[in-house]
């Protein structure tokens, strides 16, 4: 991709974007597997079940809190999250008050009363879009409902251009332990073309100052395969990331879900293929990054992460979630999981705020998982770590995954993506880099070929 495009519509119309492996082009859709069963199976008529759980006896699993902050400076062309770019301070304050009301309502439910979260996650959207005062008010209110004294990790997503020194200091004070920066790329043309609000000077400034503040963990997100990415530029991004030596780096392969600006452009131009590298190239780029990070002393700890010191740096939110912990999620469009029941809040801020105004929880769909689905969920999500042991599932569920999942595991071994070595089920690099595709092999027949979201 040598041509520099001046807009994404120009890139969409350019048919000279090289394809490394025909048939492997990036087409529209959600490929990343974040949960099971897929969201499209969650139903409005199962909402009463989550209410029954909340009114039932107190839960005894680990608890986490999630709050979704759906505000951003700009909407990135590749982004599929629920975000608003046009809200003023008063509207944002109203939203935060609604969120706190939601937490207070949950804190009174018998299933949650008195429980202390092991982990807290602020996601978005852009949590760092909030002002220092808003952040303090929000976190004080949350702590009053669910105290943080037993909390091992407080993770916070930040867009580099929204971070001032004052805000970073406030984040440390509030108790944020894992600061995650949406770097995505270090090249200004690529950042601009893909609709990012930040540029590289803001990224450098935020990284340097954050590193001087002694957060337990700084993570940076990168995306392999942004529009106009090149071989040389990608190498340069990895080199610059390594120079900063963050505790953790998360590398996503660019996907183009239907609800993105990029897809809208493709649709109006009648194109099925997105103007980004094909999957083979994206895998090669992530593999290159993994190799370079390994040379610099990092360890690959999942399909998307490298960690400088895996003994010290954990990602409690991800690990607990994948192990089936309770996740009390609040905020518009957020996803939670309580007592084996999945649930999602209203998609739009209007109905979300109205429900809370009426004294109701803003839950819009739910799904009661059964025992088989819970084992499957925990198996496939943890397979993204690259290796799991059979004994873990035998001890926890009395199920040997080597028998339960014999067919898809055989497929993985026969296709040369991994091996079963006694107790251990391991993926190799090729398998790890296309794990999201392979996971569909494990889905129950009724959940296959469904639109994921
Ligand atoms: C909620 S954002 C992180 C915080 C903040 N909103 C930001 O972008 O800086 C979560 C991350 O998802 C990743 N992401 C978003 N859209 C993506 C896509 N279409 N393909 C791959 N990764 C994507 C980006 O790396 C982004 O940093
Ligand atoms: S990628 Fe981050 S900054 Fe961009 S629109 Fe999505 S949530 Fe907002």
Helix/strand-derived category reads alpha/beta
How widely separated are the two ends? 31 Å
CATH topology of the largest domain: TIM Barrel
Report Rg.
22 Å
Question: Brief description of this entry?
Answer:
By secondary structure, this protein is an alpha/beta fold. It has helices spanning 8-13, 47-55, 89-107, 132-145, 165-174, 188-193, 200-212, 231-244, 261-268, 279-295, 316-322, 349-357, 371-383, 390-397, 401-404, 406-414, 429-433, 435-439, and strands at 63-69, 119-124, 153-158, 178-184, 217-224, 248-253, 299-300, 305-307, 326-330, 335-338, 341-345, 363-368, 387-389, 418-421, 424-427. The protein has two domains: 8-320, TIM Barrel (Alpha-Beta Barrel); 370-453, Arc Repressor Mutant, subunit A, CATH 1.10.10.920.
Provide an overview of this structure:
Helix 8 (231-244) runs parallel beside helix 10 (279-295). This protein folds into 2 domains: 8-320, TIM Barrel (Alpha-Beta Barrel); 370-453, Arc Repressor Mutant, subunit A (Orthogonal Bundle), CATH 1.10.10. The protein is globular, with a radius of gyration of 22 Å. The longest helix has 19 residues, at 89-107. With 453 residues, it is α/β, with parallel strands linked by helices. The model has no long low-confidence stretch (mean pLDDT 96). It has helices at residues 8-13, 47-55, 89-107, 132-145, 165-174, 188-193, 200-212, 231-244, 261-268, 279-295, 316-322, 349-357, 371-383, 390-397, 401-404, 406-414, 429-433, 435-439; strands spanning 63-69, 119-124, 153-158, 178-184, 217-224, 248-253, 299-300, 305-307, 326-330, 335-338, 341-345, 363-368, 387-389, 418-421, 424-427. The protein has a 9-stranded mixed β-sheet, with helices on both faces. It has a 3-stranded antiparallel β-sheet with strand order 10-11-12, covered by helices on one side. Bound molecules: S-adenosylmethionine and iron/sulfur cluster (SF4). S-adenosylmethionine binds at residues 72, 78-81, 123-126, 157, 159, 182, 184, 221, 223, 252, 254-255. The site of S-adenosylmethionine has 18 residues, from strand 2, strand 4 and strand 5.
């Amino acid at each position: 991709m040598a041509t520099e495009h001046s807009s994404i519509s120009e890139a969409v119309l350019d048919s000279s974007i090289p394809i490394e492996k025909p048939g492997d082009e990036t087409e529209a859709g959600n490929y990343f597997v974040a949960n099971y069963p897929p969201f499209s199976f969650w139903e409005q008529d199962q909402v009463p079940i989550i209410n029954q759980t909340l009114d039932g006896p107190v839960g005894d699993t680990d608890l986490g809190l999630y709050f979704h902050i759906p505000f951003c400076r700009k909407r990135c062309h590749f982004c599929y999250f629920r975000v608003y770019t046009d809200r003023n301070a008063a509207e944002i304050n109203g939203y935060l008050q609604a969120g706190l009301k939601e937490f207070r309502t949950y804190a009174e439910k018998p299933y949650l009363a008195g429980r202390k979260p092991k982990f807290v996650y602020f996601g978005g959207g852009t949590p760092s879009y909030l002002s220092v005062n808003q952040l303090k008010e929000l976190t004080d209110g949350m702590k009053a409902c669910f105290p943080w004294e037993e909390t091992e990790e407080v993770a916070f997503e930040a867009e580099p251009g929204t971070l001032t020194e004052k805000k970073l200091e406030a984040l440390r004070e509030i108790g944020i332990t894992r600061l995650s920066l949406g770097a995505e790329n270090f090249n200004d043309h690529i950042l601009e073309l893909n609709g990012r609000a930040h540029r590289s000077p803001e990224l450098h400034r935020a990284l340097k100052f954050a590193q001087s503040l002694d957060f337990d963990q700084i993570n940076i997100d990168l995306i392999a395969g942004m529009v106009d990415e090149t071989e040389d530029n990608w190498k340069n991004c990895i080199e610059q990331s390594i120079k900063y030596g963050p505790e953790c780096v998360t590398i996503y392969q660019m996907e183009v879900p239907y609800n993105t600006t990029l897809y809208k452009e493709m649709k109006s131009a009648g194109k099925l293929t997105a103007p980004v590298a094909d999957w083979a190239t994206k895998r090669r780029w992530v593999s290159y990054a993994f190799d370079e990070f390994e040379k610099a002393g990092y360890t690959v700890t999942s399909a998307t992460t490298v960690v400088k010191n895996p003994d010290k740096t954990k990602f409690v939110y991800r690990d607990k979630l994948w192990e089936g912990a309770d996740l009390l999620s609040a905020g518009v469009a957020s996803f939670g999981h309580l007592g084996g029941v999945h649930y999602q809040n209203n998609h739009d801020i209007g109905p979300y705020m109205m429900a809370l105004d009426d004294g109701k929880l803003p839950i819009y769909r739910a799904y009661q998982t059964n025992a088989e689905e819970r084992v499957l969920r925990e198996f496939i999500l943890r397979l993204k770590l690259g290796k799991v042991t059979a004994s873990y599932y035998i001890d926890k569920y009395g199920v040997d995954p080597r028998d339960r999942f014999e067919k898809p595991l055989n497929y993985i071994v026969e296709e040369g993506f991994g091996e079963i070595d006694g107790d251990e089920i391991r993926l190799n690099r090729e398998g790890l880099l296309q794990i999201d595709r392979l996971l569909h092999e494990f889905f129950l027949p009724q959940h296959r070929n469904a639109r994921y979201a």
